[in-house]
Amino acid sequence: GQYGEERFESLGHGIDVIVSTIERDNPKFVKELISNHKNYCFASPLFSRKHPLNEPKDLLDLPLGGNTQFITNTVFVHKKTHEKQSFALDFSLLSDNTALLMDWAANGHGVLVKSPFTAAAELIKNGNLVRMLKDRDLPNNHVWAYAARKDFTSPGSLIPSFFKTLKATSDLVAEVSEKI
Predict the structure, then answer these.
(1) Which sign does the torsion angle of CA 131, 133, 135, 137 carry?
(2) Which residues make Cβ contacts (< 8 Å) with residue 72, sequence separation at least 6?
(3) How far apart are CA 143 and CA 79, in angstroms?
(4) What is the pLDDT of residues 106-137, one digit of tens each?
């Protein structure tokens, strides 16, 4: 909403780079796709054992958490049949604080829906979260980097190198997320 719009207005006027899941097209900006973050549903191992999920519709009877920035376009696609399922979900906890949501799920309060693997990786590694609905894919979160075109193209600008570094780092993270 308003906060994001204000930031984009400041691009090139005090703000050099914006990295966001928001996609904006503006001829005054250079926009580059930095990464596609894989999204999954996560819960604590105990919650997962108590409430096994066979179908996305099984989520309807459980407490759900979600990041307000990522919950739109929640379409579950079966990996083999490519059948798509989408329905309104009722969230017990909505926040834009990823750490809070991860903690909530890791402590067994419910299923975190459509969360980026990158945010959950450490908790998965430590055994505090497990992936649910492994036979379903969710749309990726795209991450974009923006700079004012005049700043990006000015001689000696470090912004193009910064964009390349962001992309390279995100590509490494994406390779790891493919393996869970």
Answers:
(1) negative
(2) none
(3) 23
(4) 999 999 999 888 888 889 999 999 999 999 99
The residues, any chain, with a CB within 8 Å of residue 144's CB and separated by 6 or more, are 19, 20, 21, 22, 23, 24, 31, 32, 33, 34
Residue (of 133, 112, 144) closest to 180 by Cα position: 133
Q: Hey, what are 105's tokens?
A: 């799920």
CB 111 within 8 A of CB 64: yes
CB-based contacts of 122, cutoff 8 Å, min separation 6: none
Query: What's the predicted TM-score (pTM) here?
Result: 0.75
- 136-161 pLDDT tens trace: 999 888 889 999 999 999 999 999 99
Residue 143 CB neighbour total at 10 angstroms: 21
